[in-house]
Design a protein that fits this description.
10 helices; Rossmann fold; alpha/beta; 6 strands
Amino acid sequence: MTKIHEHSVKRYHCYCFHLVVDVVFMIKSGTGDIIMIYTALGDSITFGENASSLAQSYPRLIVSALHSKSCRAQGFVLAQPGWNSYDLLDALIWRGAPVISHSSVVSVWIGGVDLANTALAALRSKTAPEVKHMIANYERNLSSIFTQIQAGSCARIVCCTQYNPFPKSPLAVDAVSKLNLLISEISRHFDVTVAPAHKWFEGKKAELIYGFQHGKIEDALGGFLPIHPNNRGHQVIAAKLAPYLFPNSPPLFT
């Protein structure tokens, strides 16, 4: 979830989309025509950063569970470490339409990089974080992401809230709370379902986050970001998110 300059992101989009969609995550049943397509949009969490393998990331676990129930399903992931909300919007506009147009359900999990870049910039410069500026940009970008999906698809949309990997830092607590409130407000405006991912990690950060240390923003100053789910974290996300994605289906995880 490190910061990536805009010009390098634009060069990388086509490659990322080809890699993720055509190679890494084009999982489908071999039992006939596909009847359900699930697309996961996001950043490093959705990509599977710090999972032991990409097969252990939550989108792939969900599609594997669908297959185990003999559901003819296909999964796509449009996500990359380092993407903030603008980067995801940009990728969606330029490379996402073919997948989104055929999707049955789309999950959106974005905002961690927006938060991390704002917090780390404040720590390094020893100035107040520009939370209002970040929130304004995020509101515009997430609204545009929803608009883009709904303009090109009839898919149900589920948007995940952000968990706080730094629960002992008041700055992080305040910023994550404000972002999650905004996610709920924007989602309600666009008739998007909200999946409360922050609740799934409450009281379990050390168990579910790879490399969790002291729960303070300062933990990230050494270069390693202890913010991504470990294998157990992805399992929890998959089990908790699935009912929001497929509310009328039998439980995928027992």
